[in-house]
Amino acid sequence: MIKLNESGGDHLHRVIISVGSNIEAARNIARCYEILAAETILLAAADVIQTSPVGYQFQPDFLNTAYLIETPLDRVPFNHYLKAVEDRMGRLKGPIKSGPRTIDLDIVIWDGVILTDDFYRYDYVRVPVQKLLDTCAMVARRP
After folding, report:
1. Can you tell me whether residue 120 is helix, strand or coil?
2. Residue 136: which of 16, 7, 39, 12 has the closest Cα?
3. Fewer CB within 10 A of the end CB, N or C, for the chain?
């Protein structure tokens, strides 16, 4: 069994994930960083930014960041891992899709390919992800 923070000689995928929280946001962002740093190969983190909610407005502002991670897992298993981290951190999906959350983890870039139009659509995704791309001298492209 390969641990998420050991390659075992396998190819490592380079991934940028978007991270957001608006329930005890500073604490949950820090806790998420600690979990991912312990369980994955966490290479870099963007500065945390504060953003207004998109969609449902009657909720606190969000804190958002992005993390650069390397993983031996393929995309689907790695996404399942991220959703399991959300569950472990108490993420409950309520009736409002854009409602409050303890943590939200989404793959934005996988091996240099931008997977979601959210990168172009929302500053809370684009700003931290672009900061990592610039800081780490990486280039991302559309599929």
Report:
1. helix
2. 16
3. N
- What's the rounded Cα separation, in Å, for the pair 39 and 25? 21
Q: What distance in Å separates the CA atoms of residue 113 and residue 3, rounded to the nearest whole number?
A: 24
| Token couple for 47 | 């500065």
pLDDT at 112: 94
Over residues 69-98, the mean pLDDT reads 89
Give CA–CA dist 81/72, Å, rounded: 12
Residue 3 pLDDT more than 70?
no
Phi/psi of residue 99, nearest 5 degrees: -80, -175
DSSP helix, strand, coil percent of the chain (3-state; round to 5): 30, 25, 40
What is the C-alpha to C-alpha distance for residues 78 and 21, in angstroms, rounded to an integer?
20
The SS3 call for residue 5 is coil
Tell me the residue ranges of DSSP E strands in the chain.
Answer: 13-21, 41-45, 49-51, 62-71, 104-110, 113-114
Radius of gyration of the chain (CA): 15
Three-state SS string across 84-96, please?
Answer: HHHHHCCCCCCCC
